[in-house]
Design brief:
- By secondary structure, the chain is mainly alpha-helical.
- The protein is 76% helix and 0% strand.
- It has two domains: 132 residues, Serine Threonine Protein Phosphatase 5, Tetratricopeptide repeat; 88 residues, no CATH class.
- The chain is built from twelve helices and no strands.
- Helix 9 packs antiparallel against helix 10 and helix 9 packs parallel to helix 11.
- The radius of gyration is 19 Å and the shape is globular.
- InterPro entries: ARM-type_fold.
């Protein structure tokens, strides 16, 4: 029956994802993507079984191609309302942030990093007041990306992430506000350099800066 198939599948996926064997982990991730493509309804079964938590554990291998596949899986899983309801957001954001900070040391990891940033932005965009957000870690990621030796698109991704943080409808503590405003100040200091080198996007960038400034002032009210 279908329930037996799903139960057997979930047990097999757990064994392979926790195996520490890259080939078995890749096989499990491919299977997850394949099954989701065939039937979106199974996403809720994956969430009930804490597949996001198992995928976060896979990131500890620090294997960029494997991590890229993990990000693709999580991007699909986070589309379900259950993802936020079951509180998967916190562990996914925290693990992704720590992983991206490590990956940022090597410019060849660019493609994997974009997937991770896309995931964090997606999860943040669905966050509510109850979502646990490790603000110091997220700000550390923004700063790491801002001052990384990578290409300018990575710097812009960091700025977009900062904007998403400022959009969170949360009551920040005083020490959190200090951290945020410090990063905003550093971001704006870097922004003029980026604008000089990104032709044709000045209006869009001005709009982005305006929103960051407006959000910062609103936090201080």
């Amino acid at each position: 029956s279908e329930s037996i198939f799903i139960s057997t599948l979930l047990k097999s996926l757990k064994i392979n994802l926790l195996s520490r064997n890259v080939n078995r982990q890749v096989h499990a991730i491919k299977k997850i993507l394949e099954v989701m493509d065939q039937d979106n309804g199974i996403i809720d079964d994956f969430l009930d079984f804490d597949i996001p938590g198992l995928l976060c554990d896979v990131m500890n291998n620090h294997n960029p191609p494997l991590i890229g596949k993990v990000f693709v899986c999580l991007l699909k899983l986070c589309q379900s309302k259950k993802f936020e309801e079951q509180k998967h957001s916190a562990i996914v954001m925290e693990t992704s942030c720590r992983t991206l900070i490590i990956l940022s040391k090597d410019a060849t990891n660019m493609k994997t990093m974009y997937l991770g940033l896309q995931l964090i932005n997606k999860v943040l965009s669905s966050a509510d007041k109850e979502t646990a957000v490790n603000l110091p870690l997220l700000l550390r990621l923004v700063k790491t990306l801002l001052f990384s030796p990578m290409y300018q698109p990575v710097h812009m991704s960091a700025i977009y992430l900062l904007r998403m943080l400022l959009r969170l409808n949360k009551q920040f503590l005083a020490e959190d506000l200090e951290r945020i405003l410090r990063v905003v100040y550093q971001t704006l200091g870097l922004f003029s350099q980026l604008n000089n080198n990104i032709k044709g996007k000045l209006n869009k960038n001005i709009s982005l800066v305006t929103e960051i400034l407006t959000s910062s002032m609103r936090l201080c009210d």
